[in-house]
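job 3f2a | input accepted
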Amino acid sequence: MSLGHGSQDIHNVQLEKFAEWLLQIGDGLLGDSTDGESVNRIPDNLLLDIESPCLHDLVLFIYPDILLLSSSMYYFKGRSILTPTLDVVTEVNNHVMSLIPGNERVYLSSDTLLNEDGHLEYELYTMSTKSLNALNYSGIFQHRLLLKIGVPVMLLRNIDQSNGLCNGTRMQVRRLGDHVIECIILAGRNTGEVVFIPG
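job 3f2a | predicted structure (199 res):
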């Protein structure tokens, strides 16, 4: 057995134990329960050892040495930050983006309302382009997408399921074109494949 393979086995066992621990917390099987409240001890390796942590501390905890390693496909493969709201997603994304070197590229959605055959609802006429572009709801893509080479991205729509391009696919940006974004898939059966996403 090679050293690399053994370390992967250790990682898999640790991941399995962590998943078990999360499930037990979710099922209410861990902790001391008194008066409907439960106290659970979080392992030290999952805690930020900082008195008043901020977003920057969290990002550096999850992505240590981001400046040195962000170009590696494997760096982002096992790391992610889950957030409670879309506004926090935007804040985290912008902060991580600011740490990665390189030029930013902005992609904008179409912001013109079309009235084909008179089937457009009256309510849409009352919304300004500015208010439509400011929408930030689950299921509606943001008007402004800011990207850099090397940043991790996730698909929010099924594009080509047979080739692994479905909702939730994690990728890393390799090139930014005018109308296409080249990415490499980070997880699943298509890991390592280069794909092109319409921009």
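job 3f2a | The chain has seven helices and eight strands.
job 3f2a | closed
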